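Consider the tokenized backbone below.
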């Protein structure tokens, strides 16, 4: 069997999850990072090696978008063009439609919840056209719903908290059944009452933040004390307010909630709710929206460092992606080479020079 191709990056400044290291040398073989040397020009040439002088460019882990809705191969390419090498699909029916897209060579890897748990009277079920036979009307149906999603291959379980929607007993039963299968639970909650219901059900991750009023001190304290993860999707919250202006929707409430969660020490992970389906009331572009999300997180109070960690280190650590999210020996060679430092200006994440996904060079841009 032929040896996997080896690539060596010279004179590259690596983001180690906390800071930028001095110019170093990194080598990866196939899809795996195999060595990191503190010397900027430490290389042993071989017949299979490809050597790239990065000219003090900055190397970040491939970005992770913790909330998207995949729409075919074009959305995979859009993600990759913006340096997103892993994404979590938060709703797909049937999951088999996604199977062939989940691990295409050189394209972002996709984890998915499959079909989200919703109720016949919920707005979400009407917008997403979930088949009626998959909608839940009672807590007694929760265990079978979860077992079916697990059998289909869902990586996580998503439930929709809304009013009208699933009652508290059903939400509780869904989380209990999911945890019995060892699955993390994600709850959609875009207003305060659903957010409280999701917390009472003991979900692991709450995606979105309220657009009616900011989270209360008690709600924030509960998120922190129960070690829940927040995926605010500010890019979507912004898009909803811009595209669907109506009374009771307030982006400032969303931003204030993120600020309060961050100040309390709640784990915040970057997700965009990117979706480009025809007829979507609030389309959000795949890939580019991740950079917008980082900007909005910084505007809501996160430091540039913590915004970067929200799209790399933290989702890897807390969402079952331990083989990526950091530039370390033995990790996947999911990497983004950029020209400028995002620790100085968060918008610099857009200054992409190259993107590697599982060691495959996916994008190369010449900057003047």
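A designed sequence for it:
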């Amino acid at each position: 069997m032929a040896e996997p191709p080896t690539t060596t990056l010279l004179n590259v400044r690596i983001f180690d999850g906390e800071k930028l290291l001095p110019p170093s040398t990194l080598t990866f073989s196939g899809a795996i990072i195999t060595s990191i040397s503190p010397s900027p020009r430490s290389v042993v040439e071989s017949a299979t090696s490809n050597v790239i002088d990065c000219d003090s460019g900055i190397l970040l882990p491939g970005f992770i978008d913790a909330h998207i809705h995949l729409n075919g191969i074009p959305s995979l390419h859009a993600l990759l063009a913006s340096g997103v090498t892993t994404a979590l699909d938060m709703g797909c029916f049937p999951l088999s439609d996604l199977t062939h897209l989940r691990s295409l060579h050189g394209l972002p890897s996709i984890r998915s919840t499959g079909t989200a748990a919703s109720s016949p009277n919920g707005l979400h079920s009407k917008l997403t056209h979930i088949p009626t036979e998959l909608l839940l009307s009672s807590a007694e149906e929760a265990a079978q719903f979860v077992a079916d999603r697990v059998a289909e291959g869902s990586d996580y379980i998503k439930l929709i908290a809304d009013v009208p929607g699933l009652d508290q007993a059903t939400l509780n039963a869904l989380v209990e059944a999911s945890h019995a299968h060892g699955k993390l639970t994600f709850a959609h909650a875009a207003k305060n009452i659903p957010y409280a219901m999701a917390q009472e059900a003991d979900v692991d991750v709450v995606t979105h933040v309220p657009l009616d009023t900011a989270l209360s001190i008690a709600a924030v304290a509960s998120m922190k004390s129960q070690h829940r993860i927040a995926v605010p999707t500010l890019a979507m919250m912004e898009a909803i307010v811009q595209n669907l202006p109506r009374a009771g929707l307030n982006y400032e409430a969303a931003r204030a909630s993120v600020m309060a969660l961050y100040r309390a020490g709640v784990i915040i992970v970057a997700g965009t709710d990117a979706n480009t389906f025809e007829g979507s009331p609030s389309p959000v572009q795949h890939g580019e929206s991740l950079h917008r999300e980082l900007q909005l997180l910084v505007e809501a109070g996160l430091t540039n460092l913590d915004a970067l960690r929200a799209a790399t280190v933290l989702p890897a650590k807390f969402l079952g992606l331990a083989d990526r999210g950091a530039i370390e020996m033995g990790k996947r060679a999911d990497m983004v080479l950029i020209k400028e430092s995002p620790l100085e200006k968060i918008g610099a994440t857009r200054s992409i020079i190259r993107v590697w996904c599982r060691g495959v060079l996916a994008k190369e841009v010449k900057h003047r």
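Residues 2 and 48 are 10 Å apart (CA to CA).
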